Amino acid sequence: MAKKKSEIYGALWEACNELRGSMDATQYKDYVLTLLFMKYISDKAKVDKNFLVAVPKGASFDDMVKLKGSKDIGEQINVIINKIAQANDNLTGIIDDVDFNDPSKLGNGKELVDTLTGLISIFEREELDFSKNNAEGDDLLGDAYEYLMSNFAIEAGKNKGQFYTPAEVSRIMAKVIGADKITSSDTTLYDPTCGSGSLLLKVAFEAQCNEISIYGQEKDNTTVGLAIMNMYLHNCATAEIKQGNTLATPKYTENQGTQLTQFDYVVANPPFSDKKWSNGLTPDKDVFNRFELGTPPAKNGDYAYLLHVLKSMKQSGHGAIILPHGVLFRGNAEAIIRKNIVDKRWIKGIISLPANLFYGTGIPACILVLDKSEAETRKGIFMIDASKGFIKDGAKNRLRECDIKKIVDTFNNQLEIDKYSRLVPMQEIIEKNEYNLNIPRYIDSQEKEDIQDIKAHLEGGIPNFNVEELDEYWNVFPEVKTMLFKKVSESYSALIPSIEDVKQTIQNSKDIATFKQQYNEIFTEWKAEKCKELKSIPLETKPKVFIKNLGDDILKKYQNTLLIDKYSVYQILLEYWHETMQDDVYIISKTGYSSELSKRVIKKGKKENVELYCELIPQELVANKFFKPLVDKIKDLEEKASKTEAEKEEFQEENCDENSVLTDLTVTYTQKGKEKTEDICKESGISKPLAEKYIKANKTNAALKTEVDLLEKFVTICTNQSKYNKALKLAQAELSNAVLKKYPTLTQNEIKTLIVEDKWLATLQTRTEQLLLDLIQHLAQRVKELALRYQNTVSELENSQEELKAKVKQHLKSMGY
């Protein structure tokens, strides 16, 4: 069975759990990633004699497995890793820096042995067997590496997570610099502060050729190791990553070290506002002339990195850099540099991002999109304020798929959208704003103020201007407006239905019915167009390319939809992709459409049960498709069992309180020759066995008829509950057996229908329909808000207050005060 991303992620995160606690994320990441790299190269070397990494005899992951439980396991793992490093010059100082025999991190004696034994056992798991993976499988592994890096960055916290640029931001940068237009492997790509290399890889992925020339420099030696391993795991082993301080000692130079090497594409996410940027450097004597447009402030290196990036770009080059917003408007030395850069026309665009996206800081940042190739003809700078498009994700904010897509589409198509984007003429920047690039000067993204009407508060009525603010709805639903409001004067209206009936009034409108039909028809059309394609996914399909095309198609289909944003529909598709479809398509691309059953072990306490399941088709889909009567029977039994459980709880609540005749009731019976007396009502409730004993003993006692009747009712409820639960358990077992027997008999057409129509498309349709319900809810909520705001005039509120005061006084008087 093909591997699922979620399974690989789960196994790797379990490896992290093996080490978490004894050290923080900045340390344990090195152990996990080194073992991941060792497992990968060992598995690949087994099946590929020409694999780029030499794995000497006795130095593979299999040799690590033999060390499990050994007293010298840590020492011997170090020996194995050193052998790999010595056999591959480019890995020396990269993978052999981590000490697997360090008691301060891994514990002493048996603790160290057990920790490393457990860690190796996790990497032995079947889902981490990379020997059968081809290029697309390696992409799975590369994504898993990115998953680990992002989680390490989150756990590392402030000032320790800067080795990783959020993947969402990296993707935007790759797309807005036009990396998808790269068609030649001779194209060069460079990142002067590359961290773990994630930004470089996102740009490389966009290229339309198998391999481009990748170069990076990183100051931290440990992070250089992460970057090199990252390149290997993403099939970019020829990438060149060098260690050193980019500003003080750039490693990519020409002409005997007098000129910086220039590249076709340059990207960077440098440390924000670096106070030590000039360490080891005398800016006035910089041999590379990086600061000819001005010298950055001594205690802020933002422009130092920007000038390095610009100097590293060819005259036809493209680039992007992430910087804090201050670079757009700060004065003094930075204002001079900014003026000179703007005059060069090297800034193609600026994208303002949400705050709290990055792992090392919570401040908002922006992407400066740089382009020298069109500088001579550039007449403006394209600006986007994307600061409001995000979702809260734990302690950080995160860009959603729809946010990324909207930014990229808007920038690449130069779309001007109110309160979001515009092409700002150079004249406006230079003459009106004196080279200040602060986004709010050019794009007003503030929400319109919700103005209160004093006269309406005094005299009543809903201001017509508030009603007219909803014109985007009334243009589509004119009937709804007439059903909700009637004009009472030139400037004011009144709500026709009660506030409680607003939502129902909207839903009952013919306009809504028509809109719903037209809206649902769009999905029906898209479904008809895509159904055949979704049922014909060929082997070796690249899932990332597949979802890109599918996403583009759904955006086109919904591009003219009124009121419902096409990017909201796109987000639904992409969320479901990451949640379910992605794993399914990876499996289909490897094994085809299959109903093959797999085994998994389910642990319940100390017991282990083996369960059969199908990766692609959940049992409930097969059950609903082929065994509907049995499914309905189970639902009926569940309802009856639930109802009797509620009856039982209700009975006990009513008859176990201090006023009930059953409260102090006891029953005396003989057990093992001894007489025993017990309360029938216990803390846990009434005991059915004791109730039955009491009934048997007192059935003919007329004086106790009330107690006996009550207990008989309780026993009947319990008996019915047991009957329904037993029948339910049998029916569920019958259904499960029937479904498991059905899987091997499913035809290809049935399999495809279950996966594509009953699983994927049915889920997507339900979720897109929810957008319409949300739309109605939003409109109803705003109408109610307006109605409640002006429901009572000031005089009515004052009168009500006086009435309440009078009631309180009367109440106090009656109490003798």
Q: Could you report the average pLDDT, rounded to the nearest whole number?
A: 89
By CATH, the superfamily of the largest domain comes out as Vaccinia Virus protein VP39
Oligomer type: single chain
How far the N terminus sits from the C terminus, by CA atoms, comes to 82 Å
Kindly report the spatial arrangement of strands forming the biggest sheet. 3-2-1-6-7-9-8-10-13
Continuous helix count: 28
- Give the name of the CATH architecture of the largest domain: 3-Layer(aba) Sandwich
Describe this structure in words.
The chain is α/β, with parallel strands linked by helices and 817 residues long. The protein has 4 domains: 1-156, N6 adenine-specific DNA methyltransferase, N-terminal domain (Ferritin); 176-444, 3-Layer(aba) Sandwich (Rossmann fold), CATH 3.40.50.150; 453-613 and 750-817, no CATH class; 626-745, no CATH class. It is built from 28 helices and 22 strands. The strands form 7 sheets. The chain has a 9-stranded mixed sheet, with helices on both faces. A 3-stranded antiparallel sheet has the order 14-16-15. Strands 4-5 form a two-stranded antiparallel sheet. Helix 9 (198-206) links the parallel strand 1 and strand 2. Helix 8 packs parallel to helix 13 (401-412), helix 21 (543-557) runs antiparallel to helix 22 and helix 23 crosses helix 26. The radius of gyration is 35 Å and the shape is globular.
